[in-house]
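Sequence in, structure out.
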Amino acid sequence: MELTPRGEELATQLAHRHRDLSQFLTAVLGVDPEVADGEACMIEHGISAATAMQLHRFLQKWERLEPALRRRLKVDKPQPGKSLFRLIRPVRGTGRHR
């Protein structure tokens, strides 16, 4: 199979998106690399070029952070049987959430 120049350009863009998404999922969110690879495959096809560029810019800034700060900011891995998500109930009469 041979790609046209435009096809090669699109393939390169998709490969960059995949790499950035995998890096974000593993380095920032602490997702297992195998899981991150599969999920990056699904996500890369559904984001816009603008979102992909913002993600790339974020990762460039992330890489410039001191390692100690990156460790503090990194999302902890969930404990088995516990969810990182919880229901947020509205505060009565305020329209705000707790």
